[in-house]
Amino acid sequence: MPKGYWIGRIDVTNAENYPAYMKAAQPAYEKYGAKLIVRGGKCDPVEGEGRGRNVVVEFETYETALACYHSPEYQAAAKIRRANSIGEIVIVEGAA
Q1: pTM to 2 decimals?
Q2: In the chain, how many H helices and how many E strands?
Q3: Antiparallel, parallel or unpaired: β 35-39 and 85-93
Q4: What domains, with CATH codes, occur in the chain?
Q5: How far apart are CA 89 and CA 55, in angstroms?
């Protein structure tokens, strides 16, 4: 069964408060077995408009990735993220 991934592209608008989001998201990540593959780091937007921060989170399945995102634990953290950043998150199924 293919893995599931979150792909996030984020511009942090309030760097002072953004760490509160990362801390708040941790319980959801632990509950759903998330593995952080990419968390910031250097990037080079070679096509299209880039964002300052890129994140890839791996889950055992696509369904688990969806369940984590929609969980009460993550949605509480997402409110903090939205208040301190702008960006996009897509949930994708990995290659078979």
Answers
A1: 0.92
A2: 3, 4
A3: unpaired
A4: 4-37+54-93 (3.30.70.100)
A5: 9
Q: Tens digit of pLDDT for each residue in 59-95?
A: 999 999 999 999 999 999 999 999 999 999 999 999 9
Which token pair is 21?
């989001």
**Cα 40 off chain centre by:** 11
What is the total residue count of the chain? 96
Residue 7 and residue 90 in contact, taking contact as beta carbons nearer than 8 Å: yes
> How many other CB atoms are found less than 10 A from the CB of residue 78?
18
Q: Cα separation of 75 and 53, whole Å?
A: 20
Q: Is the dihedral of CA 57, 62, 65, 69 positive or negative?
A: positive
Q: What six digits make up the tokens of 24?
A: 């708040």
Q: Where are the alpha helices (DSSP H) in the chain?
A: 18-31, 62-70, 72-84
- CA within 13 Å, CB half, 66: 5
Q: Tokens at residue 23, please? A: 């801390």
